[in-house]
Design brief:
The complex is a heterodimer. By secondary structure, chain A is an all-alpha fold. Chain A has 15 helices and 4 strands. Chain A has one domain: ABC transporter involved in vitamin B12 uptake, BtuC (Orthogonal Bundle). Classes of the chains: A mainly alpha, B alpha/beta.
Chain lengths: ~350, ~500
Amino acid sequence: MSATTQSPTASDSRTPSKAARLLGDRRLPVAVTALLFLLMYLGGLTRYQFYGFAEPQVFLNLFIDNGYLLVAAVGVTFVILSGGIDLSVGSMIGFTTMFTAWLVERQGLPLLVVVPMALAVGALGGFLMGYVIHNFEIQPFIVTLAGLFLFRGLCLVISKESISIGDSSVSSMATAQVSLGMGFLSIGAIVSLVVLAVAFYVLHYTRFGRRVYAIGGNEQSAMLMGLPQGGTKIAVYTVSGFCSALAGLLFTLYIQSGDPLHATGMELDAIAAVVIGGTLLTGGSGYVLGTLFGVLVLGLIKSIIQFEGTLSSWWTKIATGVLLCAFILVQRFMTTRQKT
Amino acid sequence: MAEPRPVLEMTGIVKEFPGVRALSDVDFRLFPGEIHALMGENGAGKSTLIKVLTGVYSLDGGTITLDGRSVRIASPLQAQQAGISTVYQEVNLCPNLSVAENIFIGREPTRLGRIQWKQLRRRAAELVDRLGLDIDVSAPLSSYPLAVQQLVAIVRSLGTGDGEGPGTKVLVLDEPTSSLDRDEVLQLFALMRRLKDEGVAILFVSHFLDQIYEVCDRMTVLRNGTLVGEHMVRDLDQVGLVQLMLGKAMGQLDELHEHQLRSDVGETLLRADGLGRTGGIAPFDLEIKKGEVIGLAGLLGSGRTELARLLFGADQPDAGKVSIGGKQVSMSAPNDAIGAGVAFCSENRKSEGLVPDLTVRENIILALQASRGWTRPIPVSQRDELVAKYIKALDIRPANPEARVGQLSGGNQQKVLLARWLITQPKLLILDEPTRGIDIGAKAEIQKLVVSLSEDGMSVLYIAAELEEVLRLSHTIGVLRDRRLVAQIANGPEITTSRILETIASGEHQ
């Protein structure tokens, strides 16, 4: 074996070339998405500059209108980074809107009591799914699909009709504006940015966060390296459940009603945002910052279509589909490059 | 020189699996600052012993003493905490994380729960540096070749002790060199010697005899789950080692040897030029003539099966070419080989050859149908006639084409597999361990069959663990060693099993 197999020369085996390093850099997909967002935004500026697109508030509205999606997508980012998937997000959001509206309107409980309850229910739901996934070694796809049906069904158990919220504390919170000088943000938008910052810290500066990446990279290895991979997996789904519930609360605030059909299919929007944000569906590679850009890109598509005026809203879906396809192909290209 | 106290002593180790005694009463000791080879054929119990030591398997008997204290090792984590680290053949790290993180994950330096990245990278760089490796610890692990990843795995395993520098007393390297090239192996050896000088005891397992003689100080030989002996490497030459591993003295082997097969062989049927596959077998030249039986001899794991799989297209070669009957054939899939008249009876007749839930008839007809293509089914009458003919010719019992193959005995299963390929009337029949695990009567029948096939003009590539078998049947004997075809010996009265053993041991044919 020794004499016949060529040994690679020292230079290419030790230090990867600059170009290879750049292409292999895991931050590249995030940069691509950020660049795409920038180009789309500049495109919008040139096309609609006399229709008010240049207003700073148009940009800030992206955060206001998509805060709940950002929170949900951050939760999904954890799950996808660990190599799993969570399909229960949309149902959990819908359930939380119903749960909250019902408790506030029909039971007259104060918001301060309802919010922790809703969050606890979401976290518990996520925990249970994670527990089943880990302990019974069932694919996350199936378990969270069960969660999807379960929580959507529970919405209808609470009420078959939508419940609008007239409570004054809710409406005052919903309409509260936090001035930034050139514009304002809603409370929901600020909460979503805080969630993003916390998620970034957790993923990059805590052992738990690094374990999420390790498990997504190679679960078997992570176990042999002595990492508690079971606990980490359960925690990841708990985080996602918690984020979904929080997203549900923000959605309730945004829409000011509970409806059993709220947020149908939103798990797919969240997954799309995560993937467009450069996180690999196979796990182990990606950033929450990318998820932010993914959400912003999806939001910007909606805004641009609104500004265009003549286009139907389903063009949003078409554009999302095209982008998702393109980004998955880019991911595929990048991962095959890394292997060779 | 007075022997120092061993850092690790395993005495009277017993490990049983249902129906098998994998280790019986094995003693093993390891001294600080030595590289110790664990030798034996596949199935001799090497892996089992290592797994017992590293806590993957639990003990059924015996004691383990580490540093003078008796220890119970119940899990890989406990083994690590006790100072026994293991690096396996496959790199068990996370390719998506940086080198530094792979070294430290699970025990990152933190302050108030916040990972101290600067400190982590600095300490990783120190560890890597101390072992004389020149790698950028902040680069992702996947950007480095397998060899470097393996070295990183060793660095990680050394760091386990108290988190501050190595606390490892025993380092187990289980076949770390099997996928490395020569330069990479040398780099690994340099690291091993450095660790040895620091007083670490290293247990090294490798299929490559030369590597053992290059780097090891002492060796323990196992055979069939029992201890054969412990020797200093310098006191035991390679011939002696091979004899110990096989458990037969050379003179003893000669008596068994007799020639039965003499016949003239025809023109060249198959020619392989520089055929090889990285990690499988080094490039080789081979010529098989019409009606010739070529036997392959070599230790288990020496590349016999790999060679056969290349000729059948079951593995894709990355060098060389094959021509059959003067025409070059691209061996990119077994279908190409079948089309060119090559048949392959796998050594794993259960997992790779037969379909146990199908009937004898269906199993026999499978290859013929495949060579005709699924659009042209074989007529029922012709099929039944063929099946009946081969059941009779090979004396398959029970002689019932409807019987499920899974219920047949090993020897009869082997015959069904043979029948399947014979029915396609191949020009070259590759038999990989056709006589393994079958009774002596069936063994003799299969050997007789090989002789008669050869007389009918069919070429046979015959692989068997028993040298006598190879010697008795073959016109030419190909000797393999360390995944390389080292010699092709024309059989004759002067060729004895000890001559072949010498070739296996030395890698040269005199």
